[in-house]
């Protein structure tokens, strides 16, 4: 029983000490994982002889102790060393399996992170492409907005110019209204004068026709008096006719002047008609 206790205790104590600590879950790249696995293998290989030597020394101490302790034969030493070696090999295999499992897990995590990084890079590329398109669209909209603002300003200036022309047209119409009234008055006066001239001509014609008959019916003295009256009446009628004729000519001149002014104003208004139509 004493021989079995020594190797088992030394094997259990030395087996756990030779396993390198596993890397944490936040380990970095695959190169670091490979380096960690290599160091663990080297540590297990390097400490195995020391553990065997320690077990051998423990066995020698057991044989060189008190005389009453049992003798350990070479065969027992060999068995102990074989047992220790098998335990160390088992622990080493177990640690190696754990390390390889951890390495595979970390490699899977690294692959997932790489895949996630690729996905994020692809998404970043898409966002950059969209940003470039939006930037181009924004530049185009700014250009259109600037052009629209320029057109609005030009439209305002055009509206102000058309408004000024409309005011000028209103002023021109205001100046033409008296001319139109004057033309109407001239037409009425012409019609009246034409009636008066016609009446005077008729009276003069009647006077010329009645004068010989009146003179023939009257005596010599009365005939001379009637002739004088008729000549006076004829002279007065001729003067009235001449005066009315002059007034009629002046009225015609005023009418023609008013007509010329109205025609010129109408021509100016007609030339402005397309521009004034935009203000409607």
UniProtKB/TrEMBL annotation:
Compositionally biased tracts (Acidic residues)? 55-73
The source's domain of life comes to Eukaryota
Question: Disordered: where is this region?
Answer: 1-77, 105-156, 208-231
Q: Where is the composition biased (Basic and acidic residues)?
A: 112-156
Q: What is this protein called?
A: Uncharacterized protein
Organism equals Alexandrium catenella
């Amino acid at each position: 029983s004493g021989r079995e206790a020594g190797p088992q205790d030394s094997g259990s104590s030395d087996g756990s000490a030779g396993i390198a600590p596993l890397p944490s879950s936040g380990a970095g790249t695959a190169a670091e994982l490979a380096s960690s696995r290599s160091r663990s293998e080297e540590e297990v290989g390097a400490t195995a002889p020391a553990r065997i030597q320690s077990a051998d020394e423990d066995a020698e101490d057991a044989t060189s102790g008190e005389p009453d302790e049992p003798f350990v034969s070479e065969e027992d030493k060999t068995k102990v060393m074989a047992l220790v070696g098998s335990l160390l090999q088992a622990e080493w295999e177990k640690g190696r399996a754990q390390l390889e499992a951890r390495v595979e897990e970390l490699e899977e995590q690294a692959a997932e992170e790489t895949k996630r990084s690729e996905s994020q890079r692809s998404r970043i590329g898409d966002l950059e492409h969209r940003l470039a398109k939006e930037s181009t669209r924004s530049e185009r909209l700014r250009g259109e907005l600037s052009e629209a603002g320029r057109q609005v300003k030009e439209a305002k200036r055009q509206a102000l110019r058309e408004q000024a022309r409309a005011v000028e047209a209103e002023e021109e119409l205001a100046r033409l209204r008296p001319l139109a009234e004057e033309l109407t008055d001239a037409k009425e006066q012409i019609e009246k004068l034409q009636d008066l001239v016609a009446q005077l001509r008729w009276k003069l014609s009647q006077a010329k026709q009645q004068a010989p008959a009146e003179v023939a019916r009257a005596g010599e003295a009365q005939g001379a008096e009637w002739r004088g009256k008729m000549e006076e009446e004829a002279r007065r009628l001729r003067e009235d006719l001449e005066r009315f004729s002059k007034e009629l000519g002046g009225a015609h001149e005023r009418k023609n002047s008013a007509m010329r002014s109205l025609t010129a104003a109408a021509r100016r208004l007609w030339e402005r008609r397309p521009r004034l139509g935009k203000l409607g």
